[in-house]
Predict the structure.
Amino acid sequence: MLTIYGVHRSRAARAIWLANELGVSFAHVPVVQRYRLSDEAASRTLHTRSPEFLKVNPNGHVPTIEDNGLVLSESLAINLYLAKKHGGPLAPADLAEDALMTMWALWAATEVEPHAILVLNHRQAKSPQERDGHAADAAVRALRAPFAVLETTLGASGYVVGGRFTVADINTAEIFRYAMPAPELFEAAPRVTAWLAACHARPAFKRMMAAREKEPA
Ligand SMILES: N[C@@H](CCC(=O)N[C@@H](CS)C(=O)NCC(=O)O)C(=O)O
């Protein structure tokens, strides 16, 4: 039995979207980020610094999964594992595709996510005091090159790897989603825009987002 730890309003969304795509049933443990809770709320909510959760992931981060005794963290590694375990079109068809999917996951995590998170945080922070326009603009500038790389990659087939929708699209799309508060990046990259819209039109993504909307913001 698969258990996914982490609220939908976290990187656990990535694993939940993939599990929905695979049609794999799972138990969901909605661990909340500690920083989102007041001390009072934290005393009655399972969160990322709760002692019982730290036993599962000493890093104090979600997502984490447990799958028949395997405990795994890091959202993109979780998705690669689940895709390979269950097979089918989402999974790599051979060693070369496996290598490419690993490469794109590491690329997205290292070249894109640090900047995309800054765009999200500084353009979408709830309070204007938390927004730093200069930091957001610098992150947008840093993202122009990776957006151009993905734009070229998608030109061949419309997908990241293998000419079909795979776990590589899910992992990459979930990171590019963070950059959505920067429409100027998408205006300059029509294929990336169409690809992300197609990813977001998938029933499995919509199901995850519908559950996410029900959670407190
Ligand atoms: N690289 C990790 C990052 C995990 C991460 O930072 N998760 C955030 C939620 S999206 C978290 O758990 N934050 C809680 C905290 O820092 O207390 C991954 O992709 O899984």
User: Anything to note?
Assistant: Residues 10-11, 33-35, 48, 60-63, 74-76 surround glutathione (CB under 6 Å).
